[in-house]
From TrEMBL:
A Pfam family hit: Cation_efflux
Name of the protein this chain belongs to: Cation transporter
Compartment(s): Membrane
InterPro entries hit by this protein: Cation_efflux_TM (IPR058533), Cation_efflux_TMD_sf (IPR027469)
Record flagged with keyword Transmembrane: yes
Domain Cation efflux protein transmembrane stretches: 2-192
Main location: membrane
Length: 284
């Protein structure tokens, strides 16, 4: 439709939507695999045997690819829009362009509502990102619909000279407006892929570990935390005084349970290790 109407903005919207739809299918597949891997059935056990550390790492990888592609498309569209303005604009068949924008807007709104309702059950960052993508696509299409609707009555008027600039101007403005959204998602995905320590989670774990250290008379602790997708990985090493009197294993297990309960979170998506040692090298 973009080629038929001569609209670069519609071509951009189409490419953006195709990429977003492809990533939607991938996101749903990954979410389904993660749910199966954490289930108690036969499929969950098979996936657990094959992927002992879980499949949570797939979420930030998918978000990373999605964010990179959308950022690249938006930047390319903005540059083309500016070049179109400098070249004197572009003639567009407004009739087909208006029909496309109206139909696409209905589809985007429907998919955004469906995604939000579905994610109430899945609670997935991937599905949330996909829903944001449909909202962004709907915003892009709505902006194009408004721009073409304004341009149509300008034909035959004193402002007809402005009509060829509507398409490249709309393309540049829309591409620039949506760019911050995939940039934020891309930055978050990069932090998760690189296992950058999340400050809020680290502060929460430090608070629990410091309290346990005081109450149990330990010498100190070492904490290592990471977050990827909706999963968290936490490793805690408590430094026990050398020569401390021995205690039953049940005592240490009960203390681990208390630490886990204090940290909280969904146990299905939490990898928690709590160890006790008198040798600081084991905690480094």
């Amino acid at each position: 439709m973009g080629l038929a109407s001569g609209s670069s903005a519609i071509v951009f919207d189409g490419i953006y939507s195709v990429v977003d739809s492809g990533m939607t299918l991938l996101a749903l597949l990954v979410s389904h695999l993660i749910l199966r891997a954490t289930s108690a059935g036969r499929a969950g056990r098979r996936l657990g045997e094959r992927f002992n550390m879980g499949l949570w790492h797939l979420e930030p990888l998918v978000v990373l690819v999605d964010g990179f592609l959308l950022v690249a498309i938006a930047i390319y569209a903005f540059v083309n829009g500016v070049k179109g303005i400098l070249a004197g604009g572009q003639a567009v068949e407004l009739g087909p362009a208006l029909v496309y924008a109206a139909v696409t807007l209905v589809v985007c709104v429907t998919m955004a509502v469906f995604g939000r309702l579905r994610n109430r059950v899945l609670v997935s960052d991937l599905v949330a990102l996909d829903t944001k993508g449909w909202i962004m696509s709907g915003g892009v299409t709505a902006a194009l619909l408004i721009a073409f609707a304004i341009a149509r009555p300008l034909r035959g008027s004193d402002w007809e000279w402005f009509v060829p600039y509507v398409d490249p101007l709309a393309l540049s403005v829309v591409a620039l407006a949506i760019l911050p959204v995939p940039l934020r998602e891309l930055a978050q995905a990069v932090r998760e892929v690189l296992l950058v320590t999340p400050a809020a989670l680290r502060a929460e774990v430090d608070g629990v570990a410091a309290r346990v250290t005081r109450e149990q008379g330990f010498l100190g602790y070492r904490a290592y935390v990471a977050e990827f997708g909706k999963a968290t990985q936490i490793e805690l090493y408590f430094l026990v005084p050398p020569g401390a009197p021995p205690r039953p294993l049940e005592h240490w297990d009960a203390l681990r349970d208390a630490v886990g309960a204090a940290i909280g979170g969904d146990e299905r998506h939490r990898w928690l290790t709590v160890a006790f040692t008198a040798d600081p090298e084991w905690a480094e």
